[in-house]
Amino acid sequence: MENPATPDSAPAPDSGPGAALYAPERVIIVDDHALVRDGLRTVLEQAYPACETLDADGLEPALHLLATAGEADLVLLDLLIPGIEGLSGLETLRERYPATPVVIVSGVTDRQVVQAALAAGAAGFLPKSLPRGALLDAFAHVLSGGIYEPEMTAADTPFAAGDEERAIHARIAALTPQQRVVLGKLVGGRLNKQIAYELDVSMTTVKAHVSAILHKLQVFSRTQAVILANRAGFRE
Fold it and tell me: Response regulatory domain location, by residue (predicted)?
């Protein structure tokens, strides 16, 4: 008897949830975690066996793929990629490839983040916690021309005040000493070039620190990082 967990016994590609009339020919997955890329690739390959699935660990490699392999039917973009500040990665893709739907895939499901991504032109926002069937339904919805917005639950709404402050303190505590210094400069209203001058480091180094800070604080802009820091009473 065959093991039901083997790929040979998986449901036929067109028989399960998310079976799309608009099967993609090429999808690009952009995420800095190989495990996430592999998981999404597996789901796509089982659902759309004729689809070419490419992946990149950052924005620049993704742009290179789009330039060399040709435009994709769908780009799945992680929200918090090191080296990318806020929604700039999404904005760059939308500016250069306006006809290509870009769907954000993220572990961050705060309502404000979802709305900001959709307002910036994302064709959908997929929480990484979505089960396979819901993921395929979301792909089908976007590929047919829709915009996918996840259902928000109580778990996705802001914490109670005390819980939220403790969570913010924990995120700030995860920063390295240098990142804490840079965060202090952000709170003080410094621009990147001012921070670089004051710390005697390159602009590239400052940008790398800022990106790491946004990633660890789970926010998508400098402004939100400053707001979180102020809530926690963090000062320069």
Answer: 26-143
Specify the residue for token string 């829709």. 146
Q: Do the Cβ atoms of 77 and 104 come closer than 8 Å?
A: yes
Q: Do the Cβ atoms of 215 and 106 come closer than 8 Å?
A: no
| Residue 201 CA to its chain's centroid (Å) | 28
In the sheet with 124-127, reading across from the earlier edge strand, the strands are: 52-56, 26-30, 74-78, 102-106, 124-127
Q: Which residue has the tokens 């505590």?
A: 173
pLDDT value of residue 164: 62
Q: Which stretches of the chain drop beneath a pLDDT of 50?
A: 1-20, 154-161
Say whether domain 159-231 belongs to CATH 3.50.50.60.
no
Q: What are 168's two structure tokens? A: 């913010």
- As a whole number of angstroms, the distance between CA 148 and CA 140 comes to 10
Hey, do 7-155 and 159-231 end up sharing a CATH topology, with the first three levels equal?
no
d(CA 27, CA 14): 18
User: What is the rounded distance in angstroms from the CA atom of residue 176 to the CA atom of residue 165?
Assistant: 19
Domain spanning 7-155: CATH 3.40.50.2300: yes
3: which residues sit within 8 A by CB, 6+ positions away? 9
Q: What is the pLDDT of residues 56-89, one digit of tens each?
A: 999 999 999 999 988 899 999 998 887 777 788 8
In terms of Cα–Cα distance, which of 171, 173, 199 is closest to 185? 199
Whole-number pLDDT of residue 49: 93
Supply the DSSP symbol for 50. T
Question: What's the CA gap between 115 and 119, in Å, rounded?
Answer: 6
